[in-house]
Amino acid sequence: MTCIHSFTLPTFRRSFLPYSLIFIFILAFCCSCRASQVPVPVTIQQDVSGTVVQDNFLGISFELYPFNTLWGESPQQMPTAMENYLSNLRARIESPLRIRIGGNSMDSAVYVPTQTEMIVVTGDPAADPDDVPVDFGPMLFKVLDAMGNVVGQMEFIVGLSMRSSDYTNAVEVARDTRKMLGYRLDAMLLGNEPDLYASHGVRPGYTIQEYITDVGTMLQDLRNSPNGDLIPDTIVGGPTICCDWNLSDILSAGLSGYPYKYYTVQHYAKSICSGPNASNENITYFVSHVNVPVYTNWQKQGVQMANDARIPVLVTEYNTVSCGGSNVSDTFAATLWAIDAGLNYASSGMSGAYIHTREYGILYNLFDPPSPETSTEPNWRTGSPYYAALFLSETFIAGGSIVVDLNLDNSIYDPAATVAGYALYDRAGMKAKRLVLFNYYRADDAGSEAAARNFTLEGGLATTAGVRVLAAPSVYERTDISWAGQTVGLNGELGGTQTTNYYYDCAMGCNITVPGPGAALVLLDDVPGDSAFFFGSSTVVPLS
User: Fold this and answer.
1) Are strands 40-42 and 453-457 parallel, antiparallel or unpaired?
2) pTM > 0.85: yes or no
3) Residue 82 pLDDT class (50, 70, 90 cuts)
4) Backbone phi, then psi, for 151, in 5-degree steps?
5) S-S: 411 plus which of 259, 324, 417, 483, CB 3.0-4.6 Å?
6) Is the dihedral of CA 158, 308, 355, 130 positive or negative?
7) How far is CA 246 from CA 188, 251, 267, 301, 363, in A?
8) How far from each other are the two terminal CA atoms of the chain, in whole angstroms?
9) Rounded Cα–Cα distance for residues 487 and 481 (Å)
């Protein structure tokens, strides 16, 4: 495999150097190049099968408790930074942007239909920062709808609490959600992490069978509400489990008999709920692809049962480390991991995945305002996971695609592998249209390959390729991150020159270079002037 460099070969004259020395110089130059950059062969299987996912596969999950500090107190007070952050994602997809409002604070919240404020904190946030009690009012739905009017179409998932056996309040939420969000309401999820109700003391001794019975009762209450049938269509989802129950057991216990739109699960790679330790602060876990399929397939049997029943499975919360994140959660390693995990969910039978964000100061957040009280001002902090959302919003194919883990360099099974890759096929699985290539290079790992890696596309795969790159100086980087040459500014706007590299001689095979560490989105047979990449500005409100 040849190695390409920009250099000028000197004119040969008798007085310059003996030809033998010139030959030795060139040979040594090329050999050193090869040693420092071992190409990774990319072999593509044709005619594949799998779950077809849409271009809005990646959604954002918001905890209810801090929602007003992120989206604003009213339609007239929505932060322009949030408008820009969301617009950047919305502009890169054709389908509505997926947004979920939920979490523990949604499950413990009380809906007050007469409350004028969006959210009122009713307990001590310090008592349990992972479950802050709040009251919320109809302003929540007004702001959701208003944001959709500003940045483009969105579809919302809203949680209904099952913590109490009295579902009167949940019925009121369903009534106003349906009335105020209308066609933008995608689903209502019954309960949040009911598998933890028992261990958290919410409903002592709570079992799967009790949950199944409660679901039946709640569905009856929604059908026979004082305002009529609130679920005349298939719009409910669940069980939104995370930890102590298996989806397969819940489906077998009777959930499969209810008319559900989605089955939902939640999963974090690590937990810091009991404090920092060597496991949740281990950055090497997040830069080894071998860990990703193990993480995403923890509910494999239940997902297969759902797929057989043709009911989509959504991961309504995912991120690096639960209970607020660790010192790894805001690094570039977390960015690469979140992309890898999102694509692996797509390749493992899931139909959507929502990356979670919470209140100010949480390490895994996608973004933070200057302070909870000054969200309408600029100087927002962009978290490293936001770049994962930006990357993935441009990755999936409009109209549907099938995602396949390519097991590059045996990366599914070999812990020493420092690369990974995926192919995205058309919805029929007949032809690969896009590739995502990962270079998990770590400068502090003596066993790592040289920083940049070449990925060799086999001949006949494409004649040309368009490539955009996600890069940072190291996996430990927190701020100096760029996507296609651009970085996110203080008001959520993308700055810098949008950069796309084109490879024109790929018919017989070609090398795609991915910096280390970094990831590349490769559009096969893409050319300037007829490109499927997003071009232009997605900023709603520029920073003046």
Assistant:
1) parallel
2) yes
3) very high
4) -100, -10
5) 417
6) positive
7) 21, 9, 12, 9, 28
8) 50
9) 6
